[in-house]
C-alpha cells in the first residue's frame, strides 16, 4: 500500500489497525520523522506510553540479529512496543524486507510495530517496492511543506508553547523559515525559548534580532549592494565574508537565489497579481517594496536571464579551476555591481 501527501499524513494520525509496519519516506527526512512520531503516539493509544527501540544502519549492519530481537521482545511494563529504524536507503534493505515479509505472513509474528524512516527513495528501490506490495505494511511518501502548511504549523507550535506573536512578525518569521522540516522545527523551538517570560507579543524587531546572524546580515549586504549598484559596499562586504572563511560558492548560491526571486517578482507583476511582494519567498515587506521595485527596474527579465548564465559559467569555471572560487565570484559581483550602477 502506498499513500502520498495528505493521505499519508492522515494515516500517520489514524493508522489502519491491520497495518503492523510502516515505511515513511521523502526528500525531507524531517517530515518522515515528525509523522513517524505521530504514528508512534497513535499506535500507543491515548494516555499511553510506547516502548521505543531506535536502530540505524550501522547498528543493524554490525549486529543483524538486533532487528529481529527487538521486534520479538515484549515490554516488561506491558507498554506497546515500536522498533524505529532510521536508514539512509537500501544499505540494510535485505533485512528490513525479510522482516516485512515475515510480518505479512502471520498476524502475531512480532510483538512490536515496525517503523522505518528514510529519505528520498526511487520507485525502483527494493525496500519501497516491498513496503508497497505487502498487505500489512504501508508506504507513506511525504512531500515538502507548502507556504500555507508552514505558517499553520508554526502558528500551532507557537500557540502550544504559549507564545504570542504580532501578525507581521509571524509572516516575517515564516518567510525566513528553512524548507527542511527539522531545521524549521529547530527555529520554531528557538523562538519559543526566546519568548518565554517575555511578557509581551514577539515583534518584528525580535524576529530579526533572533534569526539574523552576523554572517547572514553580511551576506545579505553583499548581495543587495551588488544588485543595487554599490560596488564599494559590495566589495567591502565580500572582503568581510572572505576573512570569516566563507566559501565563494556560498555567495554564488545566495546570489542565484536572489536572482530567481527577482525573476519571480517580474512574473507576478506582469500577471497583475495583488500584493506580489508578499507572495515572494521570503516576502518583501511593504516598507521595503519601493526600494525593491527600483532594483527590479535596473534588472529586467532579459538582463536577469543573462545574469543566471553568468552565474552558471562562474560555477563551472570555479569547478574547472579546482581550489578557491573567491576570485571568480569577486569578479562576477564587481561586474554586476558596476552594471547596476550604470543603470541608475
TrEMBL record:
- What does the record give as the reaction this protein catalyses? DNA(n) + a 2'-deoxyribonucleoside 5'-triphosphate = DNA(n+1) + diphosphate
* Biological process (GO), any one: DNA-templated DNA replication
- Report the sequence similarity comment from the record: Belongs to the DNA polymerase HolA subunit family.
Key words of the record: DNA replication, DNA-directed DNA polymerase, Nucleotidyltransferase, Transferase
User: What is this protein called in UniProt?
Assistant: DNA-directed DNA polymerase
**Which is one GO molecular function term here?**
DNA binding
**So what EC number does this one have?**
2.7.7.7
Could you state one GO cellular component term attached to this entry?
Answer: DNA polymerase III complex
Amino acid at each position: 500500500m502506498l499513500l502520498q501527501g495528505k493521505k499519508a499524513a492522515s494515516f500517520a494520525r489514524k493508522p489502519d489497525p491491520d497495518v503492523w509496519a510502516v515505511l515513511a519516506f521523502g526528500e525531507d527526512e524531517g517530515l518522515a520523522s515528525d509523522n513517524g512520531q505521530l504514528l508512534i503516539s497513535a499506535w500507543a493509544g491515548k494516555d499511553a506510553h510506547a516502548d521505543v527501540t531506535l536502530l540505524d544502519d550501522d547498528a543493524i549492519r554490525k549486529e543483524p540479529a538486533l532487528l529481529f530481537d527487538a521486534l520479538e521482545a515484549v515490554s516488561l511494563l506491558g507498554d506497546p512496543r515500536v522498533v524505529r529504524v532510521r536508514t539512509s536507503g537500501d544499505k540494510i534493505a535485505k533485512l528490513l524486507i525479510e522482516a516485512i515479509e515475515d510480518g505479512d505472513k502471520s498476524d502475531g509474528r512480532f510483538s512490536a510495530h515496525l517503523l522505518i524512516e528514510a529519505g528520498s527513495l526511487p520507485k525502483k528501490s527494493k525496500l519501497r517496492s516491498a513496503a508497497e506490495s505487502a498487505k500489512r505494511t504501508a508506504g507513506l511518501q511525504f512531500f515538502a511543506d507548502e507556504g500555507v502548511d508552514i505558517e499553520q504549523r508554526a502558528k500551532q507550535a507557537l500557540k502550544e508553547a504559549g507564545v504570542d506573536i504580532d501578525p507581521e512578525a509571524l509572516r516575517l518569521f515564516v518567510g525566513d523559515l528553512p524548507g527542511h522540516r527539522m531545521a524549521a522545527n529547530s527555529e520554531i523551538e528557538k523562538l519559543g525559548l526566546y519568548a518565554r517570560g517575555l511578557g509581551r507579543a514577539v515583534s518584528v524587531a525580535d524576529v530579526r534580532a533572533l534569526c539574523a546572524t552576523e554572517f547572514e546580515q553580511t551576506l545579505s549586504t553583499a548581495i543587495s549592494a551588488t544588485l543595487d549598484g554599490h560596488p564599494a559596499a559590495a566589495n567591502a562586504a565580500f572582503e568581510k565574508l572572505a576573512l570569516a572563511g566563507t566559501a565563494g560558492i556560498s555567495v554564488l548560491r545566495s546570489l542565484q537565489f536572489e536572482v530567481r526571486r527577482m525573476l519571480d517578482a517580474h512574473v507576478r507583476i506582469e500577471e497583475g497579481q495583488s500584493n506580489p511582494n508578499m507572495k515572494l519567498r521570503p516576502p518583501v515587506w511593504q516598507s521595503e517594496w519601493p526600494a525593491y521595485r527600483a532594483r527590479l527596474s535596473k534588472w529586467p527579465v532579459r538582463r536577469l536571464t543573462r545574469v543566471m548564465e553568468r552565474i552558471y559559467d562562474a560555477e563551472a569555471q570555479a569547478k574547472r579551476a579546482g581550489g578557491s572560487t573567491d576570485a571568480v565570484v569577486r569578479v562576477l559581483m564587481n561586474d554586476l555591481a558596476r552594471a547596476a550602477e550604470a543603470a541608475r
